[in-house]
Amino acid sequence: MDQLHTNVMPLRLQRVSQLALSIMMAWPLAGLAQETVPVKALGAVVVTATRTETDSAGVAGAVSAVTAEDIERKGAKDLRSLLADEPDVVVPSDSRRFGGGQVNIRGIEGNRILMLTDGVRVTDYRAAGTSNYDQASRDVPFSEFLKQVEVVRGPASSLYGSDAIGGVMGFITLDPADLLKGRSFAVGGQTGYYSADNSKRLSAWVASGNERFQSLLMVGTAKGEETDNKGSSRVQGNTRTAPNPLDYTQSNVLGKLVFTPSREHRLKLTAEHKESESDVDVQRVANGTSLARVSSNTGTDSMQRDRVQLDYEYLPVAGWFDSLALKLYTQKETTDNQNRQLRSNTASTCSSTTAGTMNCLVNNRYDYEQTHTGFGLQQRKAFTFGLPQEVVWGLDFDRAETEEKTYTTWTNLATGAVSNTLLGYTYPVSYFPAGHTDQIGLFAQDEIRAGNLHVTPGLRFDRYSLKPESTGLYVRTDGKDPASKNGSHVSPKLSLLYDLQPDWNVYAQYVEGFRGPNYEEVNRYFVNGSSAYGVVGNADLKPETSRGLELGSKYSGNRWGAQFSVFQTRYKNFIDYSVLGASDPRNIYVNGTRYSTYLYQNLSSVVIRGADWGGYWQVLPSLRLNAAFAIANGYDATSKAPLNSIEPRRATLAAVWTPSEIWGAEWRLRAATGKNRIDTSSTNYFRTPGYGVNDVSAWWQFRPGSRLNFAVNNVFDKTWYQWSDVRLAGVTATEAAPLFYSQPGRNFAITLKLDY
C-alpha cells in the first residue's frame, strides 16, 4: 500500500516539515541580535479570519491578503490574476467557453469555499455540463474596486457556518475614505490594455466628504476577446488548437454613502450593479460521440448582479459591549445562457448523437436566478475576568431563493417545422424545482490571553431548511414530488498561539466545517432520452463535514519574515454523483428500459494533508525578495485513490526593486511540478508537465497618486498547462490537440492610473 495511506504524514512531507521548522526556529534567533529597528508586520490587517480587524501575523492559521497596491502593481484584472501568486490557491478555468468561475483552496473548490463580498455571500457556482451549454459563475466586483482580497485556508464554519468547509475568501471594496485620503474631494481613473485577450479596461471614480458625510461613485467597463493560448490550428473540430472565437463586454457600478453623525454611530449604504455578456463561436466541436451530429455551436452568455447593503456600526463610549455591527442586504444574480446548434445528418428526432438524413437547428436557453436576502448582527467586548479576553458573538440569517428554467425549440431545416419536444421533454422545463434555503447561525468566539499564550475557543450552531416550490415545470418520470430538507450542525474551534518573541509565534488549531446539501443535489432530475442516461438528486443526503488540524509558526521582522504551516483535514460525507449498479432499484426506467443513472451520494471520507511556506527578505533597502511554496496530497479514504482536485506542487518567487519612490520594477517566477498522482478510474487524464513561467513589470509614479504600470508576462514564451483547467475539461491522455488547453504565451499589459 502507498505510504501516503499508512503514515500519519508522508515521509517526504515529514522531512520538508522538519527542515522548514528548523529554519523557522533558527533563523529568528540569528536575526534577533542584529535587529535594532521596530519590527514590521508579516501581513496586512485582515477582517475575514476573525470577523474583527486583526494583524494577519497574529492569527492562528494560514491567512493572506492581496492589497490594492498588489493589485495595481501586478496589473491584475480578474480572479485568476488576483490570486496568481498564492501557490495553494488556484482558479480553475473553462478554456472552451466560460472562463474562471470558482476558487480552489488546498484541493477544495466550488461551493465548499465560502466567498463574501463586503460580508455578503456570493451566488452559488454551477458547473457546466458535458455539453458545455450553461454555467453560473461566482461573480465579484472589478479588481479596480477592491481594497483587499483575503484568503482564509481550511474549515471556518465556527464563524461562518455552511459552505465554509474548505476555506473563506473575502472581497472588500473601497470606501470613500480610501480614495479621499484626508482630502475633501478626489477624482481619478484608470485605463489599461491586456494583450492576452486583447482587452481594454476603463474605470473612473469620484469621492467627496467631510468628517460627517462621505460619498463615492465608481464606474468601470471592459471589452475583450478570447484568451490566447499556444495553439495555432484554426480548423473546426476536435483537432483545433487555437481558442474558440469570443467577444465579451462587462460593466460595473459601485456607489457608497457614509454618514457619521457622531463618533459613536456610523451608517454606510452600498449599491452595486454589474453585468456582462459574451458571444462565443464554439468551433472545437464533435469531440467524441456525445456531440457527433453537432456541426456548429454558437452561444451568448449574459449575467446581471445587483446588490444593496446597509451597514450600521455602534461604538458606545461606555456599555456592556465595545462595538455592535448590523448588516442588512439583498443581492440578486441572473445568468442567461443561450445556445444555437446546427445538427447535420441526424435522426428525425434531431439527436446530437444518432446519425440520419435530417439537418436541424436547435435553440437552447438556460435561465438561472438566485437571490440572497439576509442580515447579520455582531457584537464585540474586551474585558478582564481573571485573564484579559475579547469576545465576539453574533447572529447570521440568509435566505437563498433559487430558480432554473430551460427552454428548447428545434427547426427541421428541410420542412421548416418547429417543435419544442426534445430528449423526451416538452419545454420549458426545470431540472430542479424553484425554492428557497434558509440558514440561521449563532456564533461566539473568545480570545483569552494568559501571558504569551492566546487561547481561542469558538462555537457556532447552524440550522438550515430547504423548501421547494411547485411551478409546474419540474416533472419526473418516476412520479415523485420534490423533497424538503432540513437539519442542524454544531461547529467548534480551538486555537492556541504562543508568542516566543514579540515578532515570533507558534500556533496550533483544530477547526471544523460543514456544508448542507443544496437545491440541486436534493432534487435534480434530468433524463436524456437520446443517450439513455439520467441524473437524480437524493433527499437522504447528509451534510458534508470537515475536521482540520494545523500547526505553524510566523516570524515578522524588519529585514525578513516567514510563515510555515502543516495541516491535515478529513472530509466526510462528500457529496458527489456516481453511476448506480445495474441491479440498483434507484435506477431510472422509461417505458421499461433502464437508463444509466447518476445519483448524488455521500462518499465516506476524503483526506487532504500538506504544508505551505511563505516569506520575504529585505536584502537591501531597495531590494526585497518574496517566496512561497505549497504541497498537498489527497485521497479517498475508502478506495485509496488520489484526489484529482489537488494541484501539483507549486511555488512563486519574486524580486521587487524600488530604488526610489518614483519608479520600481519586479521579476516573478511561478513554477509547478508535473501532475502524476491521478485517479484514472473514470478518466485517463492528460498529465500536465511541470513549468516555470517568468514575468517582469515596472512602474513609474510621475506624480503623487498617478502611476504608469507595464508588464511582460511569460517572458520566454513558455508552453504550459494548469492542471485544474485540464481536469475541469476532462482532457484525456489520448487528446488529439491538447494545445487547445494551454495558457497564453508571451503577452503584455499596460495600465495608467490618475488620481487628483
Write the layout of secondary structure elements.
Elements: H1 3-6, H2 11-32, E1 45-46, E2 54-55, E3 63-67, H3 68-74, H4 79-82, E4 89-90, E5 93-94, E6 99-100, E7 104-105, E8 108-109, E9 114-117, E10 120-121, E11 146-153, H5 157-160, E12 167-173, H6 176-180, E13 185-194, E14 199-209, E15 213-225, E16 246-262, E17 265-281, E18 294-314, E19 323-346, E20 358-385, E21 387-412, E22 418-419, E23 421-422, E24 425-426, E25 434-450, E26 453-469, E27 485-501, E28 504-515, H7 519-523, E29 525-528, E30 533-536, E31 544-556, E32 560-572, E33 575-579, E34 588-590, E35 593-602, E36 605-620, E37 623-636, E38 650-657, E39 663-672, E40 691-703, E41 706-713, H8 723-729, E42 747-755
What does this structure look like?
This protein has 756 residues and is mainly beta. The chain has a single domain, classed as Beta Barrel (Maltoporin, Chain A), CATH 2.40.170.20. Helices cover 8% and strands 54% of the residues. The protein has a 22-stranded antiparallel barrel. Residues 224-247 are annotated as: Disordered. Residues 59-168 form the TonB-dependent receptor plug domain. Its main location: membrane.
Features:
756 residues, mainly beta, Maltoporin, Chain A, five-stranded mixed sheet, 8 helices, globular, disordered N terminus
* Total domain units: 1
Unreliable spans are 1-41
Q: What CATH first level would be assigned?
A: Mainly Beta
What percentage of the residues does DSSP assign to strands (E)?
Answer: over 45%
Number of DSSP strand runs: 42
Subcellular location: Cell outer membrane
Protein name: TonB-dependent hemoglobin/transferrin/lactoferrin family receptor
Pfam families: Plug, TonB_dep_Rec_b-barrel
InterPro entries: Beta-barrel_TonB, Beta-barrel_TonB_sf, Plug_dom, Plug_dom_sf, TonB-dep_rcpt-like, TonB_haem/Hb_rcpt, TonB_Hb/transfer/lactofer_rcpt
